[in-house]
Amino acid sequence: MRIANHRLVAEDGDNDVTFIDTPNQSAPIKPLYLIIHYTAGTSLDGAVSWFRNPAAQASAHLVIDRDGSIVQMVAFNKRAWHAGKSSWGELESMNQYAIGIELVNAGKLRQNGAGEWVNWSGKRIDPSEVIVATHPQESSSAGWQEYPEAQLEAAIAAGLALHAQYGFTDILGHEDVSPGRKVDPGPAFPMNSFRSRVLGRA
């Protein structure tokens, strides 16, 4: 993959990239960081539809489905509304400084009365896709939907193209810039290996 005119472009062998515009964007940014999120939903179409809704007041530069399909919604030199109230070091309002990738993932799960794993909306998640773990910012364990390999590889490919173009200072989770308010991408996301593969660090 590569970046052309602040858009992600697929090359031979890459996942296709579709551009679907959103009204939920604003002034130009200088990308210093890449921030990873999960959608807390279970479908690409649902996430894209929500981010296209002006009432959502939310968006992301990229949304990546579980099969590796990629939708870009905001040009990388524009501000997507993905981080909300956030800070990192001396920086406030990280939307000004970060490109946001949303991964289709149900996120933090609970067990219903039948012992099934469900997300916040009650959508049942196959137990084969669930790990039980304690978030570093929390004290009790919960279920978390895993990220499939196809999705992670697509995110890495996109991250490599973005880092080559913009030279990120670091890669963060939403949980890092909004601690106590957000827990994504959560303990199921392999942040250390993702960061090392994209940034080329040990």
Notes on the structure:
This protein is α/β, with parallel strands linked by helices and 202 residues long. It is 20% helix and 29% strand. Strands 3-7-6-11-5-16 form a six-stranded mixed β-sheet, with helices on both faces. Helix 2 crosses helix 4 (191-199). The longest helix has 18 residues, at 149-166. The chain is globular, with a radius of gyration of 16 Å. The relative contact order is 0.21. The model has no long low-confidence stretch (mean pLDDT 94).
Topology (elements, then pairings):
Blueprint: E1 2-4, E2 7-9, E3 17-19, E4 25-28, E5 33-38, H1 44-52, E6 62-64, E7 70-72, E8 78-80, E9 87-88, E10 91-92, E11 98-103, E12 108-111, E13 117-118, E14 130-134, E15 141-145, H2 149-166, E16 170-173, H3 174-177, H4 191-199
Parallel strand pairs: 3-7, 5-11, 5-16, 6-11
Antiparallel strand pairs: 1-2, 4-8, 6-7, 9-10, 12-13, 12-15, 14-15
Low-confidence stretches: none
Largest sheet: 6 strands, mixed
Mean pLDDT: 94
SS-based structural class?
alpha/beta
Helix content: 10-25%
Number of strands: 16
- What general outline do the C-alpha atoms trace? globular
Give the percentage of residues in beta strands.
Answer: 25-35%
Order of SSEs, N→C? EEEEEHEEEEEEEEEEHEHH
Q: Report the span from N to C terminus.
A: 23 Å
Spatially, the strands of the biggest sheet line up as 3-7-6-11-5-16
Tally of separate helices:
4
For the CA atoms, what is the radius of gyration?
Answer: 16 Å
Task: Provide a quick synopsis of the model.
With 202 residues, the chain is of the alpha/beta class. It has helices at 44-52, 149-166, 174-177, 191-199; strands at 2-4, 7-9, 17-19, 25-28, 33-38, 62-64, 70-72, 78-80, 87-88, 91-92, 98-103, 108-111, 117-118, 130-134, 141-145, 170-173. It is globular and about 50 Å long.
